[in-house]
Amino acid sequence: MFISNPFAGISASISPVFMQAFVVVMVVLVAAGTLFDVLHKGSARYFFDSWRKSRVKGTQQLAGSEWVAIAVRTGLVDVLASGEFCSARRRAAHLLTMYGFVAYVVTTAVMVFCYPTLATPTPPVLPLLWWIGGLMVCVGGYWFWFFIRADVAAEGNSPLRVMHADLFILSLLASVTLGLIWASLQARSAPGAGVFFSLYLGATTVLFGSVPWSKFAHMFFKPAAAFEKRISNADGTRSNLPPPADKPALLGGTRTQPRHY
Question: pLDDT tens digit string along 27-41?
Answer without folding.
Answer: 999 999 888 877 776
